């Protein structure tokens, strides 16, 4: 059979803007420098998420995000250029380049993602605790408190939409009627499956919210009048 002529000079993955991957890399570089050079910590009762108790185990949520399926797709296609596709000549992949499956060291390491998920779930309460602390510090609801809450909710939405969690709640069941509480698990699985469809978008949104909180608190520490109180308790 005659080989089809590639329609594009570059595979389509390399033409994507891929804001999620490059934003993550930029934030890692700039954020690491800012954390060390210009520490913020606590300002007016607000705890910067980068300096909350989660910073003690920051490599774990970092690895959880790095091994996330959304990010895997990004760096495998855009950085490693493999696999661009299974065997589709229209993607202009080399026909001599064989797909090796999940047998190399990178793939094997990525399989630890489910364990990073457990750690990610365990640290979520810290972000809500930071929100609570901001409320009792001034006995009031302030703009900064709502920003902390929005960040906690975004991180929760991204974590709970994880593909690995989808497998745990019901993706590993072949027969729901045969499994204990099968009907309930099937209902949860359907809800999580809908949520999972937005996992890639939530990965980017949650990354931006945590950076926005950090920038907001840095603005406060610089004396900018960007915080105000809605009401006192």
Q: What's the tally of helices?
A: 10
Largest sheet: 2 strands, antiparallel
Which class of secondary structure composition applies to the elements?
A: mainly alpha
Q: What is the typical, i.e. mean, pLDDT?
A: 77
Helix coverage percent of residues? 55-70%
**SSE string:** HHEEHHHHEHHHHE
The low-pLDDT segments are 1-11
Distance between the termini: 76 Å
Radius of gyration: 21 Å
Mass-distribution shape: globular
Strand order of the largest sheet: 1-2
Strand content: under 5%
How many distinct beta strands? 4
What is the secondary structure topology, with strand pairs?
Layout: H1 12-15, H2 19-37, E1 42-43, E2 46-47, H3 59-66, H4 69-78, H5 105-110, H6 113-138, E3 140-142, H7 143-160, H8 163-171, H9 182-196, H10 199-221, E4 229-232
Antiparallel strand pairs: 1-2, 3-4
Helix pairs in contact: 2-10, 3-6, 6-7, 7-10, 8-9
């Amino acid at each position: 059979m005659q080989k089809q002529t590639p329609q594009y000079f570059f595979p389509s993955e390399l033409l994507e803007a891929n804001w999620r991957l490059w934003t993550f890399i930029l934030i890692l570089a700039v954020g690491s420098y800012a954390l060390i050079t210009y520490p913020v910590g606590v300002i007016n009762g607000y705890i910067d998420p980068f300096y909350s108790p989660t910073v003690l185990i920051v490599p774990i949520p970092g690895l959880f995000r790095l091994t996330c399926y959304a990010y895997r797709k990004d760096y495998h296609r855009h950085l490693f250029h493999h696999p661009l596709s299974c065997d589709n000549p229209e993607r202009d992949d080399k026909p001599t380049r064989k797909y090796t499956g999940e047998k190399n060291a990178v793939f094997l390491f990525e399989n630890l993602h489910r364990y990073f998920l457990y750690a990610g779930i365990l640290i979520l309460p810290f972000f809500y605790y930071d929100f609570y602390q901001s409320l009792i510090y001034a006995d009031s609801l302030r703009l900064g408190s709502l920003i902390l809450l929005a960040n906690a909710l975004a991180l929760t939405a991204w974590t709970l939409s994880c593909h690995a969690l989808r497998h745990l709640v019901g993706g590993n069941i072949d027969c729901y009627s045969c499994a204990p509480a099968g009907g309930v698990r099937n209902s949860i699985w359907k809800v999580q499956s809908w949520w999972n469809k937005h996992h890639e978008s939530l990965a980017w949104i949650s990354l931006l919210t945590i950076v926005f909180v950090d920038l907001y608190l840095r603005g406060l520490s610089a004396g900018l009048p960007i915080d105000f109180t809605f009401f006192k308790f």
